[in-house]
TrEMBL record:
Protein name: Uncharacterized protein
GO biological process, one term: carbohydrate metabolic process
Molecular function terms from GO: hydrolase activity, hydrolyzing O-glycosyl compounds
Residue stretches making up the GLMA-like second domain: 513-582
Membership in a protein family: Belongs to the glycosyl hydrolase 35 family.
């Protein structure tokens, strides 16, 4: 190889370059769907678009179609299988690489990329995944039914010993043939992603849709046997009468199941570079957010880093989608490893327009994403039916680089964003989002609440806590009051409210902490909240005041602290309406910690990132029914005026109140909105031609205006 790559490291979810953090800008290219003769050209096109790294799945079924033959990742049996050559070509193009070997990958491949021969219908020794009713969980296989549609096949239980050994054998081959020989500094591989959106793209499912196979239940019993008194049984119905302790135990099992598989699969690959995962955002159904919070606990993963995906639809058009996306971005520091930049036919037609894609990506960055991925950056049109027999060509239909290798209109938007972050990425990464509050939650409360599957707004009689239900209502209330916020898992030993707020480490007395509570809360968690108040922090409790530990023993530690605290620093709101409670909490937070940036004219969402040296970065997002003129004021008395299209997005760099760089969208073709984009601050105005993307460094007129 001609290029030497930096030994990769991560700190606080950020990739480190030259000793400094910066956003990780990546694009996906499914080499297995393209002719090998195209690989080098397309990789060079991605490099010209400004990305740092190419990401790619490594489909098990593609590299080991027959059980009796070993995996081939070096092209011995077919040049299309030469993943090692692909990453060497990435290095020649100046790109790093992130490889993603699954074992399950989705990626619109037959049977999610699993080889046919690991299906329980082909190998009866392999258990299927079972749901709470005992029915197999399925995925579309590689065969058609009489109607020409894919036949659903049962998925193999991840903890089944037979399947487990097959998975480990595959991942060992990936490590031996691809990852370890081609990892930085001598090769371009800087990270490995294992699993996909959970295990089987199940990271958003309800707790009742997790695995109830014999091997999974055996793991559940092993996990809880040390607690004494006999292991609790998993819940066997979705009815509300399930014992809350059973619900908590089952949620704990699912969190540990993800953690165990992530750890084991990562260790089996044996990479010396970081290992990451890509959790999908919570689903929209009742109980889904609670299930997601209960199960998604990155602190359990022993060095496997958090990441997330999109696939919630266009957030500028759907408030529910936006809430789910924002929560995924805020849960923990990590990259968005799949942002839809290519699919408008298979998914939502809004994504044919580059402004939709830019809006989603900027929102993720504003909410805490440490990087993003153009999924996919390159379109392809040559693959065989053994890989994918059900999807139309090209794949995808509207990527930045078309299947013939030519740039599409999305390439300009992708390049503009990458260039903005190349100019200011370290500054952005060192800076901190200015947030007004932190929402704390205890994951077992979410596990208890998930099974009730209550609808938002329904009054809660506190037979179970309102955890995800409150967080969802809080998102809407915070948006109304223009409050940015962080999330804090009370069990996470590595963070405190200050970290979740995006500020310097250590306790910060001005951070309001908002926590949905319930009658059962163990002493360590009560002590944690009590110490926040004792050290001068502000606290809002929503729901029942905790009075017992999980064994039913009296525990009034938090109640005692609240009763004796300065009433101007604490609030307990017991009203069971989560919508009302979220509004009350948001109003109080606004009094305690007013938003650092607010929209005072027009309709948009604004996020402020404060950086060293008197620099601020603003992210401004217009909804589908918004756009036009938007004026923002910051807590430092800076006023910024923008003109952007409906569903548009803007990034603005301010140095001592003067705009020095910006991206502003002037056209959303999907929404039929066009405008002359502009931004004005500190006596400087940038404008661009009608219906174009304002890029202050290339396509813009700069002028001085009276302040």
């Amino acid at each position: 190889m001609t290029t030497s790559f930096q030994i990769p490291s991560m700190r606080g979810g950020w990739f480190i370059e030259d000793g400094q953090p910066r956003p990780f800008v990546t694009a996906d290219y499914p080499y297995y769907r393209d002719e090998p003769r195209n690989w080098g050209d397309r990789l060079l096109a991605l490099a010209r678009m400004g990305v740092d790294a190419v990401t790619t799945y490594v489909p098990w079924r593609h590299h080991q179609p027959l059980a009796q033959r070993p995996p081939d990742l070096v092209g011995r049996t077919d040049p299309r299988r030469d993943a090692a050559r692909f990453v060497r070509l990435a290095a020649e193009a100046g790109l790093s690489a992130v490889v993603k070997p699954g074992p399950f990958i989705h990626a619109e491949t037959n049977y999610g990329g699993l080889p046919d021969w690991v299906s329980p219908i082909y190998d009866r020794r392999i258990e299927p995944v079972l749901d709470v009713s005992g029915a197999p969980r399925t995925w579309s296989g590689s065969r058609c039914g009489p109607d020409g549609k894919p036949v659903d096949w049962p998925l193999p239980a991840p903890l089944c010993p037979v399947f487990d050994e097959l998975v480990l054998s595959w991942l060992r081959a990936v490590g031996e043939q691809l990852v370890r020989p081609h990892s930085a500094p001598d090769g371009p591989i800087v990270a490995v992603q294992i699993a996909n959106e959970g295990i089987y793209t199940d990271g958003a499912l309800g707790l009742w849709d997790m695995d109830f196979s014999a091997s999974a239940l055996a793991a559940h019993h092993r996990l809880h046997a040390p607690l004494g008194g006999g292991p609790p049984s998993p819940p066997t119905t979705v009815a509300a009468e399930i014992d809350p302790l059973q619900r908590m135990a089952w949620g704990h099992t699912q969190a540990e199941r993800f953690a165990e598989l992530f750890r084991r699969w990562s260790a089996t690959v044996g990479a010396a570079v970081p290992t990451v995962v890509n959790l999908n955002p919570p689903a929209a159904g009742p109980g889904a957010l609670d299930s997601w919070l209960a199960r998604t606990q990155p602190w359990r993963w022993a060095g496997v880093r958090y990441g997330f995906t999109n696939w919630v639809g266009p957030v500028a058009e759907n408030d529910e989608s936006r809430a789910r996306y924002v929560i995924a971005a805020k849960l923990a520091p990590g990259c968005n490893y799949e942002e839809n930049w290519g699919f408008s036919v298979l998914y939502e037609k809004a994504f044919a327009d580059p402004t939709t894609c830019l809006h989603q990506t900027v929102l993720a960055l504003a909410c805490g994403a440490t990087g993003y991925n153009l999924y996919t950056g390159v379109a392809t049109s040559t693959w065989d039916s053994d890989l994918d027999r059900f999807h139309d060509r090209p794949y995808p239909d509207c990527a930045p680089i078309a299947a013939n290798g030519e740039e599409t209109e999305k390439a300009m938007a992708a390049r503009a964003l990458a260039d903005y972050l190349r100019r200011h990425g370290t500054e952005w990464s060192i800076g901190r989002p200015v947030r007004s509050a932190v929402i704390g939650y205890w994951a077992p409360h979410a596990a208890a609440a998930a099974w009730n599957a209550r609808l938002a707004g329904r009054r809660n009689d506190w037979t179970v806590p309102a955890c995800g239900e409150f967080l969802r209502a809080w998102h809407d209330a915070a948006r109304r009051y223009q409050l940015d916020f962080g999330l804090w898992d009370l069990d996470d030993p590595g963070t405190d409210p200050a970290d979740a707020a995006g500020r310097a480490s250590g306790r910060v007395t001005g951070i309001p902490l908002v926590v949905p509570t319930w009658r059962y809360l163990p002493r360590p968690q009560q002590r944690l909240l009590a110490s926040h108040v004792a050290e001068g922090g502000r606290l809002i409790l929503v729901g029942e005041m905790p009075a017992f530990d999980l064994h039913g023993r009296s525990c009034l530690l938090l109640d005692d602290v609240i009763r004796s605290a300065d009433p101007d620093r604490v609030l307990h709101w017991p009203d069971p309406s989560v919508v009302d409670a979220a509004d009350v909490a948001a109003r109080r937070v606004t009094e305690w910690a007013p938003p650092a940036a607010r929209v005072v004219e027009g309709v948009a969402d604004v996020y402020l990132r404060r950086c060293p040296g008197g620099v601020d970065h603003l992210a401004v997002l217009a909804n589908a029914d918004g756009g036009g003129t938007v004026r923002v004021e910051t807590s430092t008395s800076c006023s910024v005026a923008l003109d952007l299209c409906a569903g548009g997005a803007a990034l603005v760099r301010l140095a001592d109140g003067v705009v020095t760089d910006a991206l502003v969208t002037g056209r959303n073709g999907h929404l039929g909105s066009s405008i002359t984009p502009s931004v004005t601050a500190g006596g400087v105005r940038f404008t661009a031609p009608y219906g174009t993307l304002l890029n202050a460094m290339t396509t813009t007129r700069r002028q001085h205006v009276p302040t």
